[in-house]
Amino acid sequence: MSIPISGTHYGLTAGDYHATIASVGASLRTLEHRGRPLVVPFDADEVRPAYRGATLAPWPNRVVDGRYTFDGVEQQLPLTEPARGHALHGLATWLDFEPVDRAADSVTLVATIQAQDGYPHRVEVAVAFSLDEAGLHTTVTATNAGTSRAPWGTGPHPYLVAGEGRVDDWTLTLPADSVLTVTEDRLIPVALEEVAGGGFDFRSPRAIADTFIDHAFTGLHRGDDGTTTVTLRAPEGTGVEMVWDTACPWVQVHTADRDIPALNRLGLAVEPMTCPPDAFNSGTDLVILEPGASAGAGWTIRAL
């Protein structure tokens, strides 16, 4: 029996939820509640498009020019976003993860990022997915299995779906006080600015309409339990939420604009991140893994 091009698939079911996890990139391929999609899916036998559902590690977002200096040594990463000339979304997105724990409602997948040009560190990555009545929970744990300390960051890449229609039709609640502005052409970070009164102020529910977003936000509001919640609702009242804790002080939001009309603005990418774009250069909220040390982060997607 042949394996689909997106890897081995693991179906998870709990109550009204069903999810499918693809082993390549430890990717969330489908997530449904009572048959309603909560994320933009992709076909089992296609190359995963636009990083849909991928686990991003050992950095989320971009390393500008693929170049950075760590512990006094300049490194050059492969430029995996050639149009803009950056290293995009880490090194784990095309690794084939192996299962180490499996149940009807959960799976844990593991892969090792081997030391290589541009990232001379060995890091084991475990991604645990579990479903229950509260939604899909994901936890990423990194362990430095090498002999030198390693820079680290992570995040997911789901495109959330609120219901019928597209991004323009939905209402977003994004409880963030600050946005990282970027250059228009290459999306290079420029400055952290307050969102108050501007086009990126979604602290109160507001229709996305034709707003273009491909920005990182911080200054996140948190509930009594320490979590941040981003909410997306469709006009008919259905919706989806993403919830995470203080391990991710940043979130990248993208309206998924595409030149092809059939693919344009199908879902809203909501990506909790442990660090901002280009953290390998700025050092902002960058996790440093000492040999043998581990770090984790997690998030939940649930239906409304």
Notes on the protein architecture:
This protein has 304 residues and is mostly beta strands. The protein has one domain (9-303): Beta-galactosidase, Chain A, domain 5, CATH 2.70.98.10. Helices cover 1% and strands 45% of the residues. The strands form 7 sheets. A 9-stranded antiparallel sheet has the order 10-11-12-13-27-23-22-17-20, with no helix packed on it. Strands 16-25-24-21-18-19 form a 6-stranded antiparallel sheet, with no helix packed on it. β22 and β23 (239-244) form a beta hairpin. It starts with 8 loop residues before the first strand and ends with a strand.
Describe the structure concisely for a colleague.
This protein has 304 residues and is an all-beta fold. The protein is built from one helix and 27 strands.
